[in-house]
Specification:
207 residues; 64% helix; mainly alpha; 12 helices; TorD-like
Length: 207
């Protein structure tokens, strides 16, 4: 498949996925499902397994607003902030400033600043829908190794704990996270990855 066409399909898949992770009250599910049909059909030519997983989620997810809040928001069973699954919450305010999660979020903000593309600055940088939307917005920047670093070091390693939690909760969202895992790995195959760790990311902190 032509790489430009493949990238466009992946971009469209990311956009759909970003919307699907959001609250039912913030999205028009009927329109998203309708748009998904065409995207999933094209995705079959890129990766059939990812297409099947996305189709399963669309078919089985009928979550209510109340259930979504219980799952992802107020005292959430599975927060959509990736850092919360991999880093312990600091016990004090002083500890928050030097915590591993805080460092993770600072580095994420530096990456977003590097590309000057972030969908919603009101959200914390490790919010999953925002991270997926960022990948959609930067699909044409595959010649920039910082994007590859974002996928390889700041997204993919943080997906397994979320997969485990969603599987434990027996929710259709496990299909969505599994599809994301496959798509980001496919994206990474054609993405440059920085050979010198932190070089460009650290440069983004200046100024």
């Amino acid at each position: 498949m032509d790489i430009v066409k493949k990238n466009q399909i992946i971009k469209d898949v990311y956009k759909i996925m970003s919307d699907l992770w959001c609250s039912p009250s913030d999205t028009n599910i009927a329109n998203i499902k309708k748009d998904s049909e065409n995207v999933i059909k094209k995705l079959e030519d890129v990766n059939i397994e990812a297409a099947v997983l996305l189709q399963k989620f669309i078919k089985e997810n009928t979550i209510s607003e109340e259930s979504y809040i219980d799952l992802f928001e107020l005292d959430p069973k599975c927060p959509l902030y990736l850092g919360t699954h991999s880093y312990d919450e600091p016990k004090t305010c002083a500890g928050a400033g030097v915590s591993d999660r805080n460092k993770y979020m600072i580095e994420l903000r530096a990456i977003y600043k590097h590309f000057e593309k972030i969908a919603d600055e009101r959200e914390l940088p490790d919010y999953l829908p925002l991270m997926i939307d960022f990948l959609s917005l930067t699909i044409d920047s595959k010649n920039d190794s910082v994007r590859g670093k974002f996928i390889k070091e700041y997204l993919l390693p943080f997906i397994p704990p979320v997969q485990s939690k969603l599987k434990e909760l027996k929710t259709p969202y496990v299909y969505l996270i599994d599809a994301l895992d496959k798509i980001t790995n496919i994206d990474l195959e054609t993405q440059l990855v920085s050979k010198i760790p932190d070089q460009k990311t650290e440069a983004s902190h200046v100024g």
